[in-house]
Amino acid sequence: MSDRIFGVVGLLLALGYAWAALTIEESFLSDAVGPKAFPLIIAAVLGLASIAVIAKPDAAPEWPSLMRFLEVGAAIVVMILYAIFLPELGFVIATALAATYLTWRLGTRPISSVVSGCLTSAGIYAVFHLVLGLSLAKGPLGF
Amino acid sequence: METLGSLADGFVIALTWQNLLLALLGCFLGTMMGALPGLGPSNGVAILIPLAFTLGLGATPALILLTSVYYGAMYGGRISSILLNIPGDEPAMMTCLDGYPMAKAGRAGEALALSGIASFVGAFLATWGLILLAPQLVKIALLFGPAEYFALFTLAFATLGGVASTNQAKTAIAAALGIGLATVGVDTQTGVPRFTFGEVHLYDGIDFLVAIVGLFALSEVFLFLEHRHGDADAAGHKVSVGRMMPSWSLIKYCTPTMLRTSFLGFIAGVLPGAGASLGSFISYTMEKKLVDKDGTFGTGDPRGVAAPEAGNNAAAGGALVPMLALGVPGSGTTAVLLAVLLALNITPGPLLFTQQPDVVWGLIAALFIANFMLLAMNIPMIGLFTRVLLIPPRILMPIVAMVSFVGIYGISGSSFDLLVMIGFGVMGWILRKLDIPLVPIILGTLLGNSMENNLRRAITIDNGNWWTLVDSPLSLTLWALAIIGFVLPIIFGRVLKARMKHMKRDEEGSTID
């Protein structure tokens, strides 16, 4: 069933891609092939392969339970927040928070997670910024 | 003779303090990444690419660092196979079969040392193979026009699923997704924006480094989170190594095996669609057929450890041949290495050998140096690497995630790229669950543009005649190979894959007994 759904998504993607290719505005200066032809070929390949998957799906993979799904979802949200707040908070604080969260969710006890998260952040800062001279996001505190 | 001269020049380039230090660092990191289950050669190289960049390394030093990681990971994969019966990366799967029984019999140290020597022999011979074969391939490649290149790219995608692929439709989907991603951005020939939806960030196209790190590294983190697989696999195992050096007679006993399987592995590496996993599989099965008269394979026969290790390291070297000579990689990790080259503004292929010989020969010399370093590192210092196995993923995976973020942020300094990377991470996780291979996606984003350019150039040269694509015997041959390579796995793939799985299961059954 999962494969069939994926096949339908692939097919819709192929159609959308083909439609987007057809609406590309051509420049008056164009080569013999133009900017549309190649994307249309790729759309055709994607579409045909999707139909093949719909017609002959593999056995469904083992999807995680709802709780595990939420777990992964929460991690994604944390990473998105990290990406957005990195320039504001500065590298060390943002990274310590994110690393602590991930370590905790992978099954470390809370206090150890905080320690491990801070060490991870400080370690990366030391190696990449102080030793290798990489410029990392500067926060209000200057690190 | 000319080759030896170039090689000597290569050594002059590679033997600077900076390059030696980078090779040492790469070997060390690579072995560590190979040893850790969950981090293989492709993720390892992927995480380090952005760093190599932001450090402002030149082309040759960056390549030396990353190929050392590549070779190192190939060595490292065997450690957890032997000690824990868990392959550190996919090619090391076959090493479990005899390595773990040897470890159980108290000969772990011998197995590790022997497999280290086998890895060295495989990689050393394969590097010579690379020196001899690549220039010949370059001569053929110089005959290629745009039409032939287009056919060659098609061949690469058609065979990428590999001989053991079970579902070619999924490989095709993955390739189409990758090439589709490559078409996002301003069209290089006419200057019109395509698939950008008015988003200015997309005008430059999607940065393939962002895609690679997201797909390979972040998706791994999500997989670990999903299973909450936080404890080290080694926890609870007693990792004792025992006697370190194998006796000379044992090495002599295994030498014919190593030589045969190095050759076989190298061929498997050069051929499109085979790669290191298949290299070690073929090596093991052939050796079993050839020398296993008393049925000792699978019960801790040293030759069963030497065969797959020599095979997969030779295949790793062999896989560099098409990547350097044609610019078309045949395996996942070489695809990632291609990304390094492209990001450094080096276009691999026949012209690389004539225009930038210092890069090619410096790299090859570095491979030799790395190989000796790895041998030195992997025998006396093996105890250090076995301890790496005790690092639990709950500490390691956050570090992987954070280093990925640092690398990408270091290149562009933009939050937008980080968000795109997270997007790719999620996509990679879902696609992995659905058994869609990630390598064709990467290769698609890397090669999509030059594939399209070659197509358009070929047809424009022939005034819009599409038949020009199948106009020369060379391109017809390539098309024929592409079709065979795509159709063959549909017929044989299931059988082969089933046999690989079956062999592994037999083994597990017998170790439980």
UniProtKB/TrEMBL annotation, chain A:
It holds the Pfam family TctB. Residues 5-136 form the DUF1468 domain. The chain crosses the membrane at residues 36-54, 114-137. Keywords: Membrane, Transmembrane, Transmembrane helix. InterPro entries: DUF1468. This is Tripartite tricarboxylate transporter TctB family protein. It comes from Roseibium sediminicola. The lineage of its organism: Bacteria, Pseudomonadati, Pseudomonadota, Alphaproteobacteria, Hyphomicrobiales.
TrEMBL record, chain B:
The chain crosses the membrane at residues 20-39, 45-71, 111-134, 140-162, 169-186, 206-225, 263-284, 323-347, 359-385, 391-411, 418-443, 476-496. InterPro entries: DUF112_TM. It comes from the Bacteria. Residues 20-443 form the DUF112 domain. Keywords: Membrane, Transmembrane, Transmembrane helix. Signal peptide: none annotated. It holds the Pfam family TctA. PANTHER family: TRICARBOXYLIC TRANSPORT PROTEIN. This is Tripartite tricarboxylate transporter permease.
